[in-house]
Amino acid sequence: MINTINDFLESLKIRQYSEKTIHSYQCDLQQWLELCQNTNINSWQELNKQQIKKWTMKFNQQGVNTRSIRRYLSALKVFFDYLKERNEVKNNPVFGIKTAKINIPLPTQLAYGEIETLLDFTRKSKQSLRDTAIIEMLYGGALRVSELVSLDIQSLDFEAKFIKVLGKGNKERFVPLGAKAAIAIKKYINSRIDNNPALFLSQQQKRLSVRGVQFILDKIGISSPLGINIHPHMFRHSAATHLLQSSHDLNTTQLFLGHNSIKSTQVYTHLDFLDLADSYDNFHPLTKKQKSTKNNDKK
Predict the structure, then answer these.
(1) pTM for the whole thing?
(2) 39, 54 in Cβ contact below 8 A?
């Protein structure tokens, strides 16, 4: 059974899946393999829908969150599709198995004024040019932190005003390079005397890591007047929300973020709706009249 998993993982490499995705499949399928071995199931052909449902219920009883259970099932479903293509099974036993819906939390975002506060504070740090450029890029380009640290200097085209980004699944996309971000990056690049092709470097003159960016931003957030924990994805969420609020164009926001599915972008419509609801309560004539009536009643 393990050999079949290894063959499947090798097929993902051939199809140019990322190492992170392949590792995720490997971990999830290893879990299914151990369950099979513990119940004397000696081949994938013996695994049936009833047994998978039983294990799924067990996951729930053990307190495994719904998102993880869905991922386990998704990995097994893709694996059985692979076995079906190779004529090793007739049917996919995962097909039709449902789990509880995931309550997706709304992304945490920063107000534009808060981002300005962070930038003002960052300009006073030891690595002010680098750290300012990082925030301008994360917010201005709505980049994932993994995309940010993978950038090389040659990824930027200052004349055409775009950044070539390597996103999820090794898919390239072109992101607009805003004026403020361009100025910040030029200042940072011009301050360097090394020949490293990486855009962002650590103090050891090595390519900055994801963990390194997380540490830098968290330190800035806590030390700044905001006094809050900051993680890189907050800038991406903020950029998406602000773009949607100003443009009201979901498709443009989707392209900007590099989402394959519009469903991934639709979460930001909820944020926009909350903002609209607040504005309605504050400014709509009817609600203002109701507030006025309540105040008069109190008098």
Answers:
(1) 0.55
(2) no
